[in-house]
Amino acid sequence: MDNVFTNRLRKKNFSLPEAYGSQFVKRVFQRKDMLFALAALLLFAGLSIFAPLLSPYDPNAIDLKNKNLNPSEEHLLGTDYLGRDLLSRILIGARTSLSIASGVVLISLFLGTATGCAAGYYGGFVDESISRVTDIFLSFPSVIFALTIMGALGAGVFNLMLALSIVHWAKYARMMRGQVLSIKKQEFVLSAITGGAGDFYIIRKHIVPNAIATLFVLATIDFGHVILSIATLSFLGIGLPADVPEWGAMLSAGKEFMRTAPYQTIFPGLAITFIVIIFSILGDGMRDILDPNHEGGEID
């Protein structure tokens, strides 16, 4: 965390995590955009959790007699080229996208935090080795890198999570390393080292709690990027199996009917757009609040 920000918090006699706990919520409630995004996210999360109960039809049930139907009372969002109910598929698709994205972000956050802490805290050969590895991973365009990995692994939920975690972890490691390099120079860390505290204790008690907030901002913004990556890979036909409802796959199937049944691409496209915007608003809001160098970002 920025030295100036950390010193300001120290002068007020409370730790950095305590500052976030006491001031962050207050600042969130002062921002209407974040409240709207949080409400929308809770709605999406609720729909995804209860999707099997809310879906009016089996999302994979084929009914060729009712294919390509326009939205109606019976099928609120219409049906696709196989007669499958679009509302049911979008609801289940929300569960698919959010669950896979959550797994990818958590795995990337854990790996990035661990490797970034090691690189920044120990320095020397450890730092040089980890930094070169992260540079290699960050040098590849993320989508092309994911395409290559998925081409080798094949379609599947686990393979998709693994591929995207491999693609995304390096950015967390790079950011965590920078945070650790700054924090380990602070007086409270130097005092702990002088007092004979072990490395693991210092990392667990002093380094990670004061550095993790910035990674949470990155994770929030990255959540939307991961959902876009999932949709992109599924759109290209190498993400998830055909029997797993997913928004990108729905876009790919609906593009053949853009003239006659545009709603087959409009509705899943809107779902992707809304969820990405939600996480973008949340990430930007968290950055504005937690970053003291950003306009409006100082926690009083």
Automatic annotation (TrEMBL):
The keyword Repressor does not apply. InterPro entries: BP-dependent_transpt_permease, MetI-like, MetI-like_sf, OppC_N. Residues 94-283 form the ABC transmembrane type-1 domain. Pfam families: BPD_transp_1 (PF00528), OppC_N (PF12911). One of its GO terms (cellular component) is plasma membrane. It is a multi-pass membrane protein. It is found in: Cell membrane. PROSITE patterns: ABC_TM1 (PS50928). Gene3D superfamilies: MetI-like. GO terms for biological process: transmembrane transport. SUPFAM superfamilies: MetI-like (SSF161098). Keywords: Cell membrane, Membrane, Transmembrane, Transmembrane helix, Transport. The chain crosses the membrane at residues 34-55, 98-123, 143-167, 212-241, 261-282. PANTHER family: D,D-DIPEPTIDE TRANSPORT SYSTEM PERMEASE PROTEIN DDPC-RELATED, OLIGOPEPTIDE TRANSPORT SYSTEM PERMEASE PROTEIN APPC. Belongs to the binding-protein-dependent transport system permease family. This is Nickel ABC transporter permease. It comes from Methanosarcina spelaei.
